[in-house]
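Inverse folding, one chain.
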């Protein structure tokens, strides 16, 4: 008999993102991104041991970074005493942001029942467009190939704004330079960040942040994690495979993956038994970062549950061990 999914599972997941954030926060501004990610991943894996699930990591960061951790693809997390779940994690979304002390580095986890999540191994990158609930109905598959001006006009009309009032989040990468020029030519404004793919998607679906849409190519694991949060918050997302290197193109072709298929949020993560948790590592637009006070620390997290549409923001105080 299949184990039921606890309605409190999201609250349990916060302990996982808090553990990663409390560990990673010690590396803020030290320019040690690999070390921060390594120890945050270990802390996250250890914290999962107290969670009543049999969790299967469907997309690990080793696909993109080539660095192995206890959270690689195929790893099993949780204590095994509960339902089988798909798990996607990012112990530090924005490792360079953390390393340089920049805003919006966060620790995140998304989970859903086993078999719910899109996992196109060995693909690494995907195109994405993300909008909030106001513009969800106008985000149609045609937007993926349409000029940016056309898509932005649809979004602006849905949000009762002028295009010049829109702010677009996009990763500051050479692959996006033409798209950034296109967005600016359409009249919209741009927030270009060096990292923070998941944070950017969360900003785009959060009513209290001045970001209207996220566009561009980013990691698949980040895309699936983002889809968990977007579904919980009633937003919309489109995604499509976008191999970025010759090796990735070959791997995708050999795996018979469809690089033309455009997926919606419903196809990226199916069903409604979805939970998402994030904890701030550095201060940002989304969440306050970890603050240390000798033998205790403060953290701020958000927890989302799709089936109820609940969004909780949790301020926690933690007693620190020596």
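Residues assigned per position:
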């Amino acid at each position: 008999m299949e184990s039921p999914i606890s309605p409190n599972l999201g609250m349990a997941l916060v302990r996982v993102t808090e553990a990663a954030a409390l560990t990673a926060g010690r590396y803020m501004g030290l320019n040690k991104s690999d070390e921060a990610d390594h120890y945050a991943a270990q802390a996250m894996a250890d914290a999962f041991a107290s969670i009543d699930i049999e969790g299967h990591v469907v997309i690990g960061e080793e696909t993109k970074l080539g660095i192995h951790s206890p959270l690689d693809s195929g790893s099993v997390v949780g204590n095994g005493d509960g339902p089988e779940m798909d798990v996607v994690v990012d112990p530090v979304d924005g490792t360079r942001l953390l390393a340089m002390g920049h805003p919006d580095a966060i620790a995140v986890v998304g989970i859903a029942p086993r078999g719910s999540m899109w996992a196109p191994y060995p693909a690494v990158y995907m195109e994405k467009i993300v909008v909030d609930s106001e513009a969800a109905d106008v985000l149609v598959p045609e937007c993926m190939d349409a000029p940016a001006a056309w898509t932005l006009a649809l979004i602006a009309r849905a949000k009762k704004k002028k295009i010049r009032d829109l702010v677009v989040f996009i990763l500051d990468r050479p692959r996006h330079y033409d798209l950034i020029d296109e967005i600016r030519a359409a009249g919209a404004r741009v927030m270009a960040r060096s990292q923070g793919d998941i944070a950017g998607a969360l900003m785009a679906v959060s009513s209290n942040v001045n970001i209207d849409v996220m566009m561009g190519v980013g990691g698949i694991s980040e895309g699936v994690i983002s889809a968990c949060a977007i579904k919980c918050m009633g937003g919309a997302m489109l995604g499509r495979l976008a191999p970025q290197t010759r090796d990735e193109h070959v791997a995708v072709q050999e795996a018979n993956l469809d690089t033309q298929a455009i997926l919606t949020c419903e196809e990226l993560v199916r069903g409604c038994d979805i939970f998402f948790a994030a904890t701030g590592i550095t201060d940002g637009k989304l969440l306050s970062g970890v603050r240390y006070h000798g033998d205790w620390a403060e953290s701020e997290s958000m927890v989302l549950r799709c089936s109820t549409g609940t969004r909780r923001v949790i301020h926690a105080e933690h007693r620190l061990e020596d």
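The mean pLDDT is 95. The longest strand covers residues 84-93.
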